[in-house]
Structures are given as C-alpha cells and as structure tokens.
Amino acid sequence: MSKSKTPAQIYQIKVTLRDSKPPIWRRLLISSETTLTTLHDIIQIAMGWEDSHLHAFEVGEDRYSAPMEDLFDDLDFKDERRIKLSKIVPAEGFKFGYEYDFGDSWNHIILVEKILPADPAQVVPVCIKGKRACPPEDVRGVWGYDTFLEASKAPDHPEHDMYTEWVGDDFDSEVFDMDAINAALHGLK
C-alpha cells in the first residue's frame, strides 16, 4: 500500500525588520513544509538582501543556521537544513527571529499571521504585500541606516558624498517592488 502525501498547509507570515522606523516589512505565503534553509533564501529575496553574510534563526531557546566549519560548534547552532516550519510552528500568532549579518545585526521578527488550508492552485512562495526598500548592505545596522538616510538627503552632511558614491543617488527608501520580488521567488523553485 502506497502512502498518500497530505498537501501542505500555507503559512501567511510577516517578516519585519526589527527597530526599523517606519517599519520595513514583507507579507508572504509559504508552504508549511518549507525548511529553514529555504526560508532563509525566501527572506533574502523578499527583503532585498544580497546573501553575503552569516545568518541564524532563533526559535525559543534554539538557534539554527547553515553548517559552518569551526564556527558551527562554537556558536552552538543547530543545523537548519532539515527543520521544516511545520515542526516548529505550533499555531497562528507564533513569532520567531531571524538575524542576518552578525556584524550589522539585521534582526527580523517572523510572525505567523495565518495558517491556511492546502490549496494546490496557490503558488508559493509569493509576496503579497510589503512596505519600503531594504537598507543597503553594510550600512551598520538599523541605526547606521538612519544616518545613511539623513546623509543621503543632505548634500552638506559630512558623509553625503561617501554614501552617494557607494550606493548611488537614486536610492529611494519608500520603493517596494513586489513584481520584482515575486519574479525572483518564482526563480527559486
């Protein structure tokens, strides 16, 4: 007798960059069978990060990450590769953390807003809403981002030229391009 696979539920999650004011966030639909490794990839695309730094998930007292020689044991991480969301998410309203770039400490709150029934017609992962652009990489975290925004808008600011040379003068903190995010998420499959 062959086993029939139960279709995966769909989680509606909201990923918010902690301490960002005004908030920078994305609302996504993902499969309950998504691994933490794949969730990392989804967050990188949805938020607009470049995936050039280390990351970790915090679920209760446990920290999960991709295996890293030497660092993995020292930081007491568990292997994220086989951990599915369905195994760690007990119910709607569950929150857990995601940190990207241990130097800049881009901390995110992941809120499971809804657990929806399986729907074979629903494409996942997909971004269904969001606000504001992702900060540039290596801008020294949320507080450095505030300085970056201030400096990039004020030509007389001492760091204005450095930031505009580095990032360009066309950065718009309010831009959120859901179509581009979904095109990249579609390519993830």
Output the radius of gyration. Answer: 18 Å
Give a short account of the largest sheet: 8 strands, mixed
Tally of DSSP helical segments: 6
- Listing every helix as H and every strand as E from the N terminus to the C terminus, the arrangement reads EEHEEHEHEEEHHH
Helix and strand layout, with pairings?
Elements: E1 10-17, E2 25-31, H1 36-47, E3 55-59, E4 62-65, H2 71-74, E5 78-79, H3 85-88, E6 95-100, E7 106-116, E8 126-131, H4 141-153, H5 160-167, H6 178-188
Parallel strand pairs: 4-5
Antiparallel strand pairs: 1-2, 1-7, 2-8, 3-4, 3-6, 6-7
Helix pairs in contact: 1-6, 4-5
State the gist of this model.
This protein is an alpha+beta fold and 189 residues long.
Q: Could you explain how this protein is built, in words?
A:
The chain is built from six helices and eight strands. The chain is an alpha+beta fold. An eight-stranded mixed sheet has the order 5-4-3-6-7-1-2-8. Helix 4 packs across helix 5. The mean pLDDT is 91.
